[in-house]
Amino acid sequence: MTDLKIEPLTSSALDALTDLLVETVAHGGSVSFMHPLPPAEARAFWQGSLDAATRGGRVLYGAWDGDTLVSTVTLLLEFPPNQPHRAEIAKMMTRTAYRGRGAATALLREAEAEAIRRGRTLLVLDTSVDGGAATLYGRAGYTLVGEIPDFALTPDGRLNGTLIYYKRLPR
Fold first, then answer.
1. How does pLDDT run across 41-69, given as a tens digit for each residue?
2. What domains does the chain contain, in order, with CATH numbers?
3. Does residue 2 carry a pLDDT above 70?
4. Residue 85 — φ and ψ, nearest 5°?
């Protein structure tokens, strides 16, 4: 996908973020919500996330194909005083029709670059054992630490494990 536009997201993307989250959960994406996800609940989540971004606690990035938000990722930046060197990758999701076409990889690279600009030297993340993005993170140079079994419920209510990864960033 060569004509994607990657950019930080603001409140103008709230409707698109809401639609993406509802679609992701409906297709089994384990991103903290149960199916069916009411749009009002998805919207409230993203509004809180965008508010946190305004305060500097995170950065949300989106990949756009024209007027369609096809993928998003959040770089979490707020950590205790003894962890000023790290950040976390969260809420990576891509529309079903766009998976495997490079959007998530482009977003991940942008989030990593932002972490480096902010002086972060360690990124951490987790992804679902079933249906997660383990292949993406492995290709991107993340190191698998291990699996926590029965970590969370899938959107349809089954217990599922999570895989924990990290990546050291250049200073």
1. 999 999 999 999 999 999 999 999 999 99
2. 5-168 (3.40.630.30)
3. no
4. -95, -5
